[in-house]
Write a structure and sequence with these properties.
This protein is mainly alpha-helical. It has three helices and no strands.
């Protein structure tokens, strides 16, 4: 058994380790190439204007 405080500490440590693993993986595989938002939208057949025209469901 562990106290709630210790459980919270362990969960926070686990989250920190996941973040660290993600940072390390990204730094190991980063080529330095960056893509603009407009390039990503174009790859999916959209523009900023076409996204703005989409009606929200809310």
């Amino acid at each position: 058994m562990v106290s709630i405080r210790r459980l919270n500490e362990l969960e926070a440590a686990a989250a920190d380790l996941r973040d660290l693993a993600l940072v390390l993986a990204r730094s190991a595989t980063d080529t330095g190439e960056r893509v603009s938002l407009d390039e990503v939208l174009a790859a999916f057949g959209h523009t900023r204007e076409s996204l703005a025209a989409i009606q929200d469901d809310e």
